[in-house]
Design goal:
Keywords: Cell membrane, Disulfide bond, Ion transport, Membrane, Transmembrane, Transmembrane helix, Transport. It holds the Pfam family Kazal_2. InterPro entries: Kazal_dom (IPR002350), Kazal_dom_sf (IPR036058), MFS_trans_sf (IPR036259), OATP (IPR004156). It is a multi-pass membrane protein. By secondary structure, the chain is an alpha+beta fold. Helix content is about 60%, strand content about 5%. It has 23 helices and 10 strands. The strands form 3 sheets. Strands 3-5-4-8-7-6 form a 6-stranded mixed beta sheet. Strands 1-2 form a two-stranded antiparallel sheet. The protein has a two-stranded antiparallel sheet with strand order 9-10. Helix 4 (about 100-125) runs parallel beside helix 8, helix 5 (about 130-155) packs antiparallel against helix 10 and helix 8 runs antiparallel to helix 21 (about 590-620). The longest helix has about 35 residues, at about 60-95. The radius of gyration is 30 Å and the shape is elongated.
């Protein structure tokens, strides 16, 4: 290898790269080392294979790399944090999934990340690795995953869950032949239940395997790639812009998904346009955005494949007289991980190289795990992510349950909150990193303060709009007004009575007539009975309309809710650039990609994976009426909305307190390298050397 480099150097009249690397490896240990920069070589050109024309080299810069990474990260964020959380309720309804199952679907994204990220960052972070191609491959696989996610729509046929006018009449209080009533119940059960639909969760899980590839490489290898390509003082700003675009992606995804939800799930619309988004039987178009964004992801992967191993900005490309200062941690990394072990592994057989590689991995992990600041910071980020991931995954559902907010109508508010709060938070965090420079102690202090502020934001879950009185199956079966109705317990089609009470179905309200022209029921015996119990004998009406009853919310509740959501997003994203910048500065330079990968693995394993499961389970604990699918429990039909908010607040408060404590421990254990060197020199001067 060295001989080939020497021959190439002689042929091109350029300095010898192997000699430079060898001399750097054998350099004495000093805080800084002067390295002579050399002219660029063809491998630093932008292009694909041998196709590296001059007009493409304008894209061969950190700024254009950041642009293409932002596009990939934005598309990934639009799907993962924009589309998927919004369509969860629809997937539950369409494919018969519980909240726990939908949470399992969400966390498979992170489970696959735990498996892939250490592998990607270990091999992608090697000196000879091609980070641009790793990024391109991840974005390409993401595009394929989007297309796979939409496939269940095309294989399930037209949606048959809408009640027709005749079925509405069948749902009335029959009050007659018991054989007719039993026959109707059996027919409804057979017609409305298809247990095989829930098996499509495995297709969604397969899609998640491909979807996680983009973020898995973008926020580990990509961040390290940017850090290698720009000056240290600008690294935080580049990382902040990347995370800001990551916030813009979910915001735009939320808005676009909300607009697509205004379309019926099937084309053509067999309902004849009679259903509207606010109807209880409405099923929005959940699948259309996936193939579109998937194609965009595949196209955006192409430029990333064209980037070289090293960008000209910080490669050895300038005049022979220029010098560059190598940071102390870079020298440590070079000495420890590019020395004899790597040279030895190249000259041995496969088994020996595997053994040496495992020894190198053990040494690498030992360096990271013995760094208390790195470990406290990693665990703090993981616990913090546990709370944010669970809340963010179910935020549209939580707003529906606590505030009676329709997903379609509030998508613009969620999108605006994400874009304004998250993007501005990321940029603010980038400005802080530039303002403090490489002062990790001050950045950690700001992170602790922001963690405390986020605790106050958890009070949002105590907000609540009072539920309308509801009559579910247990209460309806005990009422005299439904004793002869033979109601179908598997048919959930809520109606709101003129008395302001919500009933499980028209039958459970005792209604005997239905008008398809205005979607109302009349002659409802239970509503008449209600008025008589209140001693109302004149001016009463015993009618009901389809859908749930509206809840009484003060006009200021919704604006306040989304204002706090915006602030929570600001705080969450403001910590990430500082968190990432501190991580990059407290580990050896050659371990930065791998350190970020291990950090992401810990975050997914302890935070993102259990977060969605815990919050999904907590929400399911608040269910007061489960769907009965012919004796099998299906998804939750209705919740105790007040209990939902209280349970989520309790979990979020505990998680936030633990995260804040761990952030403080990272601040407490961090030691400024300059202070450590000064103390060591002072001890040496006083004769206290421990050598």
């Amino acid at each position: 290898m060295a001989a080939d480099d020497a021959l190439m150097s002689k042929h091109n009249n350029q300095p010898n790269y192997s000699t430079l690397r060898l001399s750097l490896d054998e350099a004495p240990y000093t805080p800084t080392a002067k390295v002579t920069k050399m002219t660029s070589v063809p491998r630093t050109r932008f292009g694909w294979g041998r196709f590296t024309p001059g007009f493409l080299q304008v894209f061969n810069s950190p700024r254009w790399l950041l642009v293409y990474m932002c596009i990939g990260a934005g598309l990934a964020g639009a799907i993962t944090f924009g589309f998927v959380p919004i369509i969860l309720s629809t997937l539950e309804f369409r494919f018969g999934l519980s909240s726990t199952q939908s949470a399992l679907l969400v966390i498979t994204y992170d489970i696959f990340g735990v498996i892939l990220i250490p592998v990607v960052t270990y091999y992608g972070g090697m000196r000879t690795a091609h980070k641009g191609r790793w990024l391109g491959l991840g974005t390409l696989l993401f595009g394929v995953g989007c297309i796979i996610f939409s496939l269940p729509h095309f294989t399930t046929g037209y949606y048959e869950g809408v009640l027709t006018a005749s079925e509405k009449n069948d749902s009335l209080c029959s009050g007659g032949d018991p054989y007719y009533g039993n026959s109707t119940k059996t027919t409804q059960c057979q017609a409305s239940t298809d247990p095989s639909l829930s098996n499509y969760i495995y297709v969604f899980i397969l899609a998640q395997l491909f979807l996680c590839a983009c973020a898995g490489s973008m926020y580990t290898l990509g961040v390290a790639y940017l850090d290698e390509s720009v000056e240290v003082q600008y690294s935080g700003q580049y990382i902040a812009i990347l995370y800001a675009m990551t916030a813009v992606g979910p915001g735009l995804g939320t808005v676009v998904c909300g607009e697509i939800f205004n379309l019926w799930v099937d084309w053509p619309d067999k309902t004849g346009g009679t259903l509207k988004p606010n109807d209880s039987n409405w099923l929005g178009n959940w699948w259309l955005g996936f193939p579109i964004i998937g194609c965009l992801g595949i196209v955006s992967a192409l430029p990333l494949f064209g980037y070289p191993r090293k960008l000209p900005a910080r490669d050895f490309e300038l005049s022979v007289t220029e010098t560059v200062t190598v940071a102390e941690d870079d020298v440590i990394g070079i000495h420890e991980y590019n020395g004899d072990l790597q040279t030895e592994s190249e000259s041995k057989d496969v088994a020996t190289r595997l053994k040496i590689g495992l020894r190198e991995l053990q040494t690498t992990l030992g360096v990271l795990f013995k760094n208390p600041t790195y470990m406290f910071l990693s665990f703090a980020g993981a616990i913090d992510a546990l709370g944010y991931s669970g809340i963010f995954t179910f935020s549209p559902k939580l707003s529906e349950l606590m505030l009676d907010a329709n997903t379609v109508n509030t998508s613009w508010y969620f999108g605006l909150a994400i874009v304004v709060g998250d993007a501005s938070g990321a940029l603010f965090g980038g400005w802080i990193t530039k303002f403090f420079g490489v002062n990790c102690k001050k950045m950690l202090a700001v992170v602790v303060a922001l963690s405390l502020l986020s605790q106050l934001g958890n009070l949002i879950f105590l907000m609540y709009c009072e539920d309308a009185p509801r009559v579910m199956l247990a209460q309806a079966d005990s009422m005299n007004c439904t004793s002869g109705c033979l109601c179908d317990a598997t048919l959930y089609d809520p109606v709101c009575g003129s008395n302001g009470v919500e009933y499980f179905s028209a039958c459970h309200a005792g209604c005997t007539q239905y008008s398809a022209s205005n979607l109302t029921y009349s002659s409802c015996g239970c509503i008449t009975e209600y008025w008589l119990s209140k001693n109302v004998t004149s001016g009463l009406t015993s009618s009901a309309r389809t859908g749930t009853c509206s809840r009484n919310c003060f006009p200021w509740v919704m604006p306040l809710y989304f204002t706090i959501v915006t602030l929570l997003g600001f705080v969450a994203l403001a910590t990430i650039p500082m968190y990432t910048e501190v991580t990059l500065r407290i580990v050896p330079g050659q371990l930065r990609s791998f350190a970020l990968g291990i950090q992401w693995t810990i975050t997914k394993l302890l935070g993102l994976i259990p977060g969605s499961l815990i919050f999904g389970y907590v929400i399911d604990l608040s269910c007061i009426q489960w769907e009965d699918k012919c004796g099998t429990r299906g998804s939750c039909l209705t919740y105790d909305n007040r209990k939902v908010g209280l349970n989520v607040f309790a979990v979020a408060a505990v998680v936030g307190a633990v995260a804040m404590f761990l952030y403080f421990m990272a601040y407490w254990t961090y030691k400024n390298p300059k202070d450590v060197r000064d103390r060591d020199e002072e001890d040496a001067g006083n004769g206290n050397s421990t050598k």
